[in-house]
Task: structure prediction
Amino acid sequence: MRIALAQIGARLGDFDGICSRVEQQVHLAQDAGADLLCVPAPLMCGVTPGALVDYPNYEHDLLRALDRLAAICDAAGVACIVPAVLSLEVGQLFEAFLLRRGRVVPLRLTMIRHQEGVPVSPWSPPVFDVAGTRIAVTFDAQRDLASLPGGCDLLLHFPVNGLDVTDCDSAAAAALPTGQMTERVARAGIWMACMAPVGGYDDAVYTGGSYVLDDGGRVVALAPCFEESLLVQDVVRGVPCEAVEDRKIPRFDRGTWMWNGLRLHLRDSVAAQCAGRVLVALDGGLASSLLACLAVDALGSRSVIALHVEHDAASDGTAQEFHALRSRLAREVASRLHIRMVERVAPDIRPLLDGDEPGNPGISVPSAQARVDALMMEDVAQIEHAMPLSALTKTDYALRPRVGARANVATLAPFGDVYLTSLEWLARARNRISAVLSEELLGLNAVAGDMATVLRDAVCQLGADGDIADRALSSLLALDPSQIDGALEAHVDRNAVLDDLPLFATDPESAALILMIVRSGEASRRLLPSCPIVSSRSFVERAWPSMLGWSDMGRHGQERLRAADLADAEFHRLEKRGAARAERARGEIMDMLADLLGITPEQRRELMGEEGLERMGEQLKDAEQSVREALGRMASEGLGPEAFGLGSQDGDAGASGRAGFFSLN
Result:
């Protein structure tokens, strides 16, 4: 059997466009002599369609598209597996549709219907045959490898989780050198084909890297990462084939995978918005400069426009020098990337504001300037017919979402799931491709300067009194940027509580302040642009109630309370109470027997002991055995009820030789 893996991407829900893409792959697979074609799991509707699958006509349109593909596959003589998400009464189900002989067969639903008499999990791998090869389909190879039905020759794995740069297993082929997949496949003794998606699907990012392992766990076929491809491989059990050289198997590198994953997502997001160009606000900082690099890598320099806004209202010489440096760096980046830059001059808005007057908590000058910059960016975007991008990072989302929301005109923030301090090593990884960013942007000083701006806005949005705000800002500015992002990463990505934050041991007040700031920005965070998910938990996945008034302030040394411990304590209490009741019942019975049999209190205490109860139990067994033997002798001697002066029930003296009394009683 020859299998083909179509590592392609398409716009979600565009059934006509998807069918055209798949039709091309069907003809390519036919030319390659393939018997079975596989397409990625998120191709039809993504992996988290939400309420989309509950719409009454969604399933109808999906099946119409699959029926069209089934006819195409039948004409080409190629079977096809198309994963999709369906809505059931018990929830949503990852289904695998088999297109063969002009029919559309939902494998999992068919398996459930066929085994209605025998309970079967809807997540069990369905099995089917193609060209004499028995194939099982799974969406979780780690779970299903050890429990596959007998006789399977090939396991088809359709990954559904997107890229997580903290977990190399999310990088498909790049996880093979350091993962355990090859060893597990070798132990199972079957072939395995991994159909890895590529591109951006809503918030998820996929980087490709499909592969095929033989029944010895060796890599025998490999698709490239970060690009579309059609991988074709013969599957023959027990027949050795040439393995891919180790040096050709990609090694996972966090910076490379993150950069290329963001690049693919930006490319597909712009295409989904039908935007020909993007607009980046270059302010001379690290985040905006790196965003311009990402846009050029994803779309090309002709499709990227830069906007730089000059601020001539600097209050002192230091501020003027800082703005001059930022302007120079912005122009250098635009020149090195060969992108057109539009320059505007912002008016002096300080006379219009009273925010700096003593005792007047009006709008601050930096916040107002950000709004003016946003208006200029929106104006340029409309003139140039460009899609505006935001340079907000995950640190911005965590600490100053209110400021970001007020000045936001973008629909996408590519770094929204990347912490500010991570941009430093991400920039160095990008500079290995071409040295676009100067050393002034690559150093830790650039990160520290941007972090200081973030912290000032974060404290300002709390609306605290002057003395309290000054104390909070001084406390946060004294921290290293890595300490702040480390606390955020632990709390947001790993759900760590206050006591478990790495910062808590050295500065508990600052740690508590950071968590309070994160909680206070929940409502504003929902107004920020969407971002690709590249971490273990983004703010989209971690959304809390916007009206929440609780903050995790730790346990202050108290033992953790758990509902399970309360349930265990209640169970033991009831168990002990039941034992006490049984003991009391035994005592009452023994008192009654003692009165009837004339047992002394000393004998009663002896009988109530463990040895006494055990001895009584043995005596009762002996007595029962004696009674059984006596009854047996009576029956064998033909003693009837008349032997006891009771007479026969039917008037007969028991001539039949049976013990009528004991048989009836």
Q: What stands out?
A: Confidence is low (pLDDT under 50) at residues 355-361, 644-665. Residues 208 and 227 are 7 Å apart (CA to CA). The longest helix spans residues 563-597. The radius of gyration is 37 Å.
